């Protein structure tokens, strides 16, 4: 879905070897979520609340000369790994040139009256465009390890720049509204509500969705 | 309408936030340069002691240094807090790598809510700092420290000095937070030309015939420089005692309100905050000849866990065998054979600088080994009692024997003597008499700012990896357990694997350090004529000795 008018959109691009896809995606996603997660809220009387503590940990990449920091939450890590794993598999089996993108969208829920379903209003969208390269020999792989590591360093700096702009963030919710802003299902941390989706670009260089649209348009034009 | 002047409560809160933000900033930066992976746990219930809702450990020494630098002030215009990260090689060359600057500029944001927005943005800024500290070049360097160089930090307050970073340094901005009294900015200037590193390797002298040469004496940190190593032992506290952050008693129990701004509640409560007890160095108990023998590992780093080697009760020091051939009267004098019935007297306290001399002359004579006295030093200890060594008289006669940690040749710090546990051993009369407590043993409680490396350090993987001294090509090789063939040794209380692991990273030889190396070199040269004269005088004895060997 296209971002709404007030939704901030950031795009990052990386070229990686097949086996680096997962780690590169996790590095970026975890870095974003580090900034977009708080401790668990504990609401008390009179509309006040206290916030739990977020721990962090270093993660070393195996296929990239790179390390990053993520939130200490196994649940969150598992969720991201699952999404990234699916993305990687889709990339591999698509038969495309190895191009695709994975998106991390932060949204707010707006409750609607029955029979209308709740609206999801995105307020920040991160898109990582991935280009998978194939390397011929070990020497190239070694260079790729270092180069991708350097590139990821740049991406982290970019992410931090965006975070530092202190642009729109959802208002801190009351207890009744908290599930419309935050994902409260995890036991140790509380990220803003997010969803991860991905697209694989077919070999024509167009994403699958746009191909379909063009077909229909062309058909109708006849 | 809201009063745009800062209320006194807000002002107090803001000052406190800035102060603790500065302290946490320093912790994050230094911890990111320790050379190890950091891991803290999330906690859903607020503990009341985690500033900015982030689990960032407080290393007491680091807090102490930061407070010393700040001296009760806060970052303000023209007064920035800087954390300088530099690298120092084993040869003594040093180079500034990064300067992290926490600055304040005049741009004020009067509208912003202190107890809420500023606090949360400071928290966000710390998260950014966690992320950015891993992407500058110094991070990878610091993960590989230990073999040929160490990473040091220095905190200063005042004007930022970037001249030490060389030409073409780059800057990365971590972030800014506007406050009613100014805008806090956090950035890092880092050197990009890091191509100077040499790949000089240590040359390890192999143990000489049963003498275990202990290279792992901590080299005292040159007291002139205010630098501190990033990898140090936070646990042992009988050396320098740093008060745990005294304002840690003022913990920050954040309480936020979702009601209209005027009812924003922020409480700061006083509570007791105990830093966790220091980690005691693990030691290994290895039974030898039916008696328990304790020997202490030269672990010295913040989170070094010698898990592979087992855990025992903290006790004594390294087993070291014997050295021979020292003359009591004159440290420079050679011992000839046949003196005093084949038992060379044990020297008394030679001066520090000449010790290297002395050691060089150690040779086992006539197959006789006996304990050597070494100069005492107030910081070092060695108290070991052990089952007897095969080489020391008859093993069955002795219940205990003395082991001295013999300082390896060319190591520039002497260690002191060990006591005699049992006077029945041969040559007991030559054994030194002092006893020093384990508390003074630098292996348990290091001097203030030690600079040595731990044997197991030096690779990206913190557990069990066989750190290759040449760098990063073996990152994916993780050594789980090192079991060399035929490695069990009945005599020594450690097997080859343990030995190998422990002695992988010997500290720098003193002759390799510019100052001390030069010093002892000069002394060597000075003493040469003397030595030559002595040799000449004893030529006949030497010849006779040589005859006996043929």
From TrEMBL, chain A:
Leader sequence residues: none
GO cellular component, as recorded: Atg1/ULK1 kinase complex; phagophore assembly site
Keyword Glycoprotein: no
Organism: Brachypteracias leptosomus (short-legged ground-roller)
Superkingdom as given in the UniProt entry: Eukaryota
GO molecular function: protein kinase binding
Database matches in Pfam families: ATG101
The keyword Transmembrane appears for this protein: no
Keywords, comma-separated and alphabetical: Autophagy
Family: Belongs to the ATG101 family.
GO biological process: autophagosome assembly
Localization, UniProt: Preautophagosomal structure
Lineage: Eukaryota, Metazoa, Chordata, Craniata, Vertebrata
Protein name stated in the entry: Autophagy-related protein 101
From TrEMBL, chain B:
Family annotation (Pfam families): ATG13
GO biological process annotation, one example: protein localization to phagophore assembly site
Keyword Lipid metabolism assigned: no
Region (Disordered): 332-392, 438-472
Entry GO CC: Atg1/ULK1 kinase complex; cytosol; phagophore assembly site
UniProt subcellular location: Cytoplasm, Cytosol; Preautophagosomal structure
Compositional bias segments (type: Polar residues): 373-389
Bias type Low complexity, positions: 458-471
Protein keywords: Autophagy, Cytoplasm
InterPro entries, sorted: ATG13, Atg13_N, HORMA_dom_sf
Domain Autophagy-related protein 13 N-terminal: start-end pairs: 96-196
Family classification: Belongs to the ATG13 family. Metazoan subfamily.
Protein name from the UniProt record: Autophagy-related protein 13
Organism: Brachypteracias leptosomus (short-legged ground-roller)
Gene: Atg13
């Amino acid at each position: 879905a296209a971002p709404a008018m007030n939704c901030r959109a950031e795009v990052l691009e990386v070229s990686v070897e097949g086996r680096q896809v997962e780690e590169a995606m996790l590095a970026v996603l975890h870095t974003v979520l580090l900034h977009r997660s708080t401790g668990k809220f504990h609401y008390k009387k009179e509309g006040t609340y206290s916030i739990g503590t977020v721990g962090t940990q270093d993660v070393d990449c195996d296929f990239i000369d790179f390390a990053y920091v993520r939130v200490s939450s196994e649940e969150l890590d598992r969720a991201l790994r699952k999404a990234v794993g699916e993305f990687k598999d889709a990339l591999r089996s698509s038969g495309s040139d190895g191009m695709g993108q994975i998106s991390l969208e932060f949204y707010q829920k707006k409750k609607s009256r029955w029979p209308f379903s709740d609206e999801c209003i995105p307020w920040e969208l991160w898109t990582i465009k991935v280009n998978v390269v194939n390397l011929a020999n070990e020497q190239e792989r070694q260079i790729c390890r270092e180069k991708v590591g350097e590139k990821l360093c740049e991406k982290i700096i970019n992410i931090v720049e965006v975070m530092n702009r202190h642009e729109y963030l959802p208002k801190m919710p009351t207890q009744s509204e908290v599930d419309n802003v935050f994902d409260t299902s995890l036991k140790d941390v509380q990220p803003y509500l997010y969803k991860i989706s991905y697209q694989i670009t077919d070999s024509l260089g167009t994403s699958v969705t746009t191909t379909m649209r063009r077909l229909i348009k062309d058909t109708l034009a006849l | 309408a809201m009063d745009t002047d800062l209320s006194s409560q807000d002002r107090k809160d803001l000052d406190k936030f800035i102060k603790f933000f500065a302290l946490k900033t320093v912790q994050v930066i230094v911890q990111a340069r320790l050379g190890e992976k950091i891991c803290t746990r999330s906690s859903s219930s607020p503990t009341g002691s985690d500033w900015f809702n982030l689990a960032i450990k407080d290393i007491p020494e680091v807090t102490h240094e930061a407070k010393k630098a700040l001296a009760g002030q806060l970052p303000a215009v023209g007064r920035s807090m800087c954390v300088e990260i530099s690298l120092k090689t084993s040869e003594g060359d040093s180079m500034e790598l990064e300067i992290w600057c926490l600055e304040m500029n005049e741009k004020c944001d009067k509208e912003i809510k202190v107890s809420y927005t500023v606090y949360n943005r400071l928290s966000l800024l710390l998260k950014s700092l966690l992320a950015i500290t891993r992407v500058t070049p110094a991070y990878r360097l610091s993960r590989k420290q230990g073999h040929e160089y160490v990473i040091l930090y220095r905190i200063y307050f005042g004007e930022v000095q970037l001249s030490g970073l060389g030409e073409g340094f780059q800057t990365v901005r971590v972030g800014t937070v506007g406050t009613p009294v100014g805008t806090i900015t956090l950035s890092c200037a880092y050197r990009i030309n890091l191509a100077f590193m040499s790949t000089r390797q240590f040359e390890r002298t192999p143990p000489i015939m049963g003498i275990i040469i202990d290279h792992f004496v901590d080299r005292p940190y040159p007291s002139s420089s205010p630098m501190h190593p990033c990898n140090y032992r936070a646990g042992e506290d009988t050396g320098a005692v740093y008060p745990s952050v005294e304002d840690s008693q003022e913990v920050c129990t954040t309480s936020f309100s979702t009601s209209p701004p005027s009812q924003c509640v922020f409480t700061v409560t006083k509570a007791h905050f105990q830093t966790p007890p220091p980690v005691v160095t693990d030691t290994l108990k290895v039974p030898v000849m039916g008696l328990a023998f304790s020997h202490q590992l030269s672990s010295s780093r913040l989170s070094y866990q010698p898990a592979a080697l087992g855990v025992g009760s903290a006790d004594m020091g390294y087993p070291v065998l014997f050295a021979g051939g020292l003359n009591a009267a004159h440290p420079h004098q050679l011992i000839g054979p046949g003196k005093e019935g084949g038992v060379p007297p044990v020297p008394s306290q030679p001066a520090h600088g000449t010790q290297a001399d002395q050691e060089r002359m150690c040779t086992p004579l006539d197959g006789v080994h006996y304990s050597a006295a070494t100069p005492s030093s107030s910081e070092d200890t060695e108290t070991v009692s052990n089952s007897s060594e095969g080489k020391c008289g008859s093993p069955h006669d002795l219940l205990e024997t003395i082991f001295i940690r013999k300082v390896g040749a060319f190591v520039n710090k002497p260690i002191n003597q060990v006591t005699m546990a049992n006077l029945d051993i041969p040559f007991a009369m030559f054994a030194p008499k002092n006893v020093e407590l384990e508390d003074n043993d630098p292996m348990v409680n290091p001097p203030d700012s030690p600079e040595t490396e731990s044997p197991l350090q030096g690779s990206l993987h913190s557990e069990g990896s066989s750190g290759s001294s040449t760098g990063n090509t073996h990152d994916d090789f993780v050594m789980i357990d090192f079991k060399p063939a035929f490695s069990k040794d009945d005599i020594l209380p450690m097997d080859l694997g343990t030995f190998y692991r422990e002695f992988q990273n010997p500290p720098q030889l003193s002759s390799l350090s510019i100052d001390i190396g030069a010093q002892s070199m000069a002394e060597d040269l000075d003493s040469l004529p003397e030595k030559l004269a002595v040799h000449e005088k004893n030529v006949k004895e030497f010849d006779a000795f040589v005859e006996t060997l043929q």
